[in-house]
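Quarterly update from the structural biology core.
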Amino acid sequence: MREDVEPKRAKGTGVKFAYDTLRDEILTLELQPGAVLDETSLAERFAMSRSPVREALIRLAGDDLVVTLSNRSTVVAPIDVQRFPKYVEALDVAQRMNTRLAAELRTEADLKLIARRQKEFVATVHRGEHLAMSEANMVFHMAIAAAGRNPYLSAFYERLLNQGRRMLHLHFADLEQGKKEILLTGEHDDMLAAIRDRDVARADALAHAHTRQFRDTIITCMKRTYLDDASFDAPGLRT
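Predicted structure, tokenized:
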């Protein structure tokens, strides 16, 4: 047997490898919105057949991270500025529901995990690592969702948070220039405290405020990038 022959991957690992790699590259914008994802090229890149690549793309489509065009080509999903208000409405519902349920149903083990995720998040903030910060932010919120014990709401929330990460990454340069970083807040600690106290109403209010802060920061960046008079407000979040 030749020593330079790559060991055969176990069944299913090729799909996971392709999916995980492409997902990370899409979320960090290494693969830009609208980039074409060619099965043959990806299969060559990953040294695998087209079948696992195709399955990975199907999974990514289920995550709303890629779309198939009328000519059957697959591209990285665009970030649609005009749909931002609808996105924020959905995020607000998911964020509030998951946080409310966490306050109602959390266990001591849940609290320890959420607190640990918050410490990890704070560490990335102190290091100033933007990509790691957005990842840690999502992991923190998913720990809250896990405490709510509703897998359907949790999965919906995860998809929305992933979309939010792409929006943040798109505007990191703006956030740096303006010295305003959406992730540098004490709101996580307040949310953790409300969940610990089983204060459902306060948890709901804090989750709603967290969504508003995200909306306001992204809108500021969008108005710099696009049209100053563009309307990105979500009706349910107007102050």
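Confidence is low (pLDDT under 50) at residues 1-7.
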